[in-house]
Amino acid sequence: MCVVGKDLLERLQREYRLVWPFDPAHFDGDGYVLSVAENVTIHYLDFENVVSLEFVHIPWFLVGYMTTKSKFGRLGLMFSNSAKAHSGFIGRIVLELTNVSKLHKPITISKGEPLIHLDFWTRLGKPSPYDGKYMYQHMSEEEIRMIEPFAVKSSKIGSPEEALNIQLPR
Fold it and tell me: Is 3 in contact with 120 (CB distance < 8 Å)?
């Protein structure tokens, strides 16, 4: 597996709509930064589910890997769940966050603020696409209809090499 670089992500965004709504200014290195859907304040030792403003489409030939922006980690915000979005997942990302700040002060994240760094990794071997209960989480019927043609298109790709038009190292 390897991280997909910005140049390929730009092409994949056009072809498969990886993130919606999409803003090119949210590219950060070789990843994309998702923002927060609603204002949230997390008090010391409290736990909150924080939902992304954008929804993501992880094509069958990729896997998503997430971390919080270091700005929030340095404040004491801890990311408490699995950091992976399975191949085939479509929906808004929900992060389970806990405030463990040494200062014992609340941490506020504003609507639209960049929080979730998402990297896309290629996968080797046959995918086992996600089809669990969180598929299409926090999405409207209109959003689901809008993304479905892109999901169908990505499901027909046999390998990362085919999708990316590159030869991956073995």
Answer: yes
**Do 1 and 122 touch, CB atoms closer than 8 A?**
yes
Q: What is the mean pLDDT of residues 72-94?
A: 91
Q: What is the pLDDT of residue 167?
A: 64
SS3 of the chain: the string is CCECCHHHHHHHHHHHCCEECCCHHHEECCEEEEEECCCEEECECCEEEEEEEEEEECCCCEEEEEEECHHHHHHCEEECCCCEECCCCEEEEEEEEEECCCCCCCEEECCCCEEEEEEEEECCCCCCCCCCCCCCCCCCHHHHHHHHHHHHHHHCCCCHHHHHCCCCCC
pLDDT value at 153 more than 70: yes
Please state whether 138 falls in left (phi above 0), alpha (psi between -120 and 50) or beta.
left
Token output for 48? 């909150």
At 89-143, the pLDDT tens digits run: 999 999 999 999 999 999 999 999 999 999 999 888 877 889 899 999 999 999 9
CA angle 86, 89, 95 (to 5 degrees): 75
- The full set of domains in the chain, from first to last, is 6-164 (2.70.40.10)
Q: What is the pTM of this model?
A: 0.90
